[in-house]
Amino acid sequence: MAHVTTTIAVANQKGGVAKTTTVASLGAALVELGQRVLLVDLDPQGSLTFSLGIDPEELDLTVGEVLLGTSQPADAILVTDDGMDLIPASITLTQIEETLMSRTGREQRLRVAIDKIASEYDMILIDCPPSLGVLTVGALSAAHHVLIPLQAETLSHRGVGQLLDTIYDVKQSINSTLTILGVLPTMYDGRTRHAQNVLAAISETYDLNVIEPAIPKSIRFAEAPAVGRTVLSTASRHKGAEAYREVAKVLIAATAKKKVHPSEASQT
Ligand code: ADP
Ligand code: MG
Fold first, then answer.
1. Could you name the CATH architecture of 6-255?
2. Which residue among 27, 34, 62, 248 is least crowded, i.e. fewest CB within 10 A of its CB?
């Protein structure tokens, strides 16, 4: 069977819902499971890049140059200490996003770039910025699936409808086979009935799958980036690390169903 790569965009235009933490931690969990993993930092803040021990300010080649077409994606790839490869981002992406607005094929550029290197990887995770602009649309255009981290708090799901509208638009215009894996509850305090109720309401209102286990709230998650590693390295047996390991297995199972190419389906 031909090699098939799964690309997942981790998106939510709300900041601070653990998109970056999820991309880094799931990436490390997938590496532990023997997968070849590429992470793409698509946030001009460069939080993912920084949290994996790389100083964005010292980089010459980032995802920005790849999107502009002045660098090949393979040339921008770095290896991180937790074993994932990374296409980093830096603040220059803010200016580059502006520039892209007047370029043709701006929403397809990430997909075209990823296509060139996808065969080297089993799983590619894209860390989206906290907006629904051209960068996030580009990520949704490049991905097979989208995963939506969500904090189970009262008002945190107000933007979900808007995100789903954007996903719908991308499906209509650019990427008809994009699927929503579901919402991943993060910073979850399952002891409160409130958090449970919010999750149930979100699932029902938007008809979204809730991925389990939820990621528990823990200070350990804030500590890991300070040493450039993920919680899977800094607190390996912690329940937060274990939760991401479980979610990684769930994602492999959920995406494997889609892995057979239509042309090969008859042979299997
Ligand atoms: P986003 O990328 O959506 O803006 P981040 O991943 O940067 O969100 O997370 C925002 C903050 O929350 C960071 O300081 C991070 O360390 C912290 N954080 C992430 N996950 C958890 C968790 N499960 N429990 C507690 N804090 C968390
Ligand atoms: Mg982030």
1. 3-Layer(aba) Sandwich (3.40)
2. 34
